[in-house]
Amino acid sequence: MDTKQLKIYLYYESICAIGGIESWIYYFCQHLYRYYDITVLFCTGDDKQLERLSKIVKTRKYESNKKYICDVFVNATNWKPFPKNIDYKKCVAVVHCDYNYFKEQIKLSHLDKGIDELICVSKNCSDGLYKAFGTHGKVIENILGEKIETHKIYRFVSFTRLTEEKGLNRIYKMVEELRKANVKFEWKIFTEFRLNNTDYPELIFMDPTLDVFDYLVDSDYLVQLSSSEAFCYSVHEALQYGVPVIVTDIDAFKDVVIDGYNGYKVNLSMDNIDINKIINNIPHGFKYDENFKAIEKKWFDVLGKPFYKKDSTPDKVKLKVIYKYYDNELKKEMNVGDRIEVDEARAIVLTSGKNQINTKLCEYI
User: Fold this and answer.
1) What kind and span of H or E run contains 93?
2) For a tag site, which of 115, 131, 194, 277 has the least CB within 10 Å?
């Protein structure tokens, strides 16, 4: 294999966990490491960013008391003076933001000292540099990463108090089984309990809310891993909305959940769970019998048959119009001196001035 001859040091002071410059550094290296001997120099760096960079280029923590020698020095930190202990044949400065926006905070007087090429990552970036400091940069648009295979992120949801019988330990076990199967997922749990979930970052603990159904229908599964239930509203509500469920094989779900039709049952010990079957065969299109009328009738039998008393017609009040107006209820123009009959509530509005035009329109006769 031929040895790459051009040695490049790419310097960025602080590599953060996320950011546009961090993306540019990685994609720059991803595309160009095949052609150049690239080393990324940094003062501080996020471990995960450095880990992925180290798979394609060299990474080295910058030390001010060391000498660095390269063919091309690429500097992505342009708001501070350049490091003085780097010897290079060519210096390239890369501008990543609209400096016209930041011109009060950033001075670029050092940019004209020893720079051979000033690169801007977009035309907007170059125009902003000109507006702020009277100089344009050569535009080389940001390069995107090579497309990779993507995987669905599965969404689970639970609405539960997480008391002992609700199966918190089974939730943790389920997470571990999903991890073993290399399933990417996020699991929202709406509960009043605040738990330390640093070992289970896939679990997102949410404050209880009565507005649950949007979260429910946005999920692949409703999960309820209880030791005991009498009915379990969340399971039935999920099935009502066409969302399959994952539940324990307890008596409460015996005739409610049919494996493969509207969900899956797992045993209380959480052993031998077929994660691949659950993930690759998500039930859809099943029916749920809401049975409202039959249940209402059972309550009628207990509470007594409902009966109603016909409402009496409210007493009418006679008024005289004292201010010309259009009556929306009567749908006609009312003139001074006209007489009308209205109910007591409307009479109060017309005679009090507490109306849209804040004017007393009528008086009692």
Assistant:
1) strand 90-95
2) 194
Tokens of 272: 């031998």
Pairing of strands 90-95, 86-87: unpaired
pLDDT in tens, the chain (365 residues): 577 789 999 999 999 999 999 999 999 999 999 999 999 999 999 999 999 999 999 999 999 999 999 999 999 987 677 788 999 999 999 988 877 776 655 555 555 567 889 899 999 989 988 888 788 889 999 999 888 899 999 999 999 988 878 999 999 999 999 999 999 999 999 998 877 778 899 999 999 999 999 999 999 999 999 999 999 999 999 999 999 999 999 999 999 999 999 999 999 999 999 999 999 999 999 999 988 999 999 999 999 988 777 666 667 899 999 999 888 888 899 999 999 999 888 898 899 887 777 889 999 99
User: What whole-number distance in Å separates Cα of residue 293 and Cα of residue 350?
Assistant: 44
The residues with which 120 forms a beta bridge, in sequence order, are: 95, 139
> Which residues of 104-184 form beta strands (DSSP E)?
117-120, 138-139, 154-159
For residues 256 and 162, give the distance between their C-alpha atoms in angstroms, rounded to a whole number.
Answer: 22
Q: Look at residue 140 and give its three-state secondary structure.
A: coil
10 Å Cβ neighbour count for 176?
12
Contact criterion met (CB below 8 Å) for 92 and 72: yes
CB under 8 A, 24+ apart: contacts of 284-291: 284/242, 284/244, 285/242, 286/239, 286/242, 286/244, 286/261, 286/262, 288/236, 288/239, 288/240, 288/242, 288/262, 290/240
Between vectors from CA 169 to CA 167 and to CA 175, what angle results, nearest 5°? 105
With CA atoms as reference, report the closest residue to 352 among 323, 331, 311: 323
**Beta strand 221-224 pairing with 203-206:** unpaired
The number of angstroms, rounded, from the C-alpha of 314 to the middle of its chain's C-alpha atoms is 53
Q: How far apart are CA 114 and CA 35, in angstroms?
A: 25
Q: In angstroms, rounded to a whole number, what is the distance separating the alpha carbons of residues 293 and 231?
A: 19
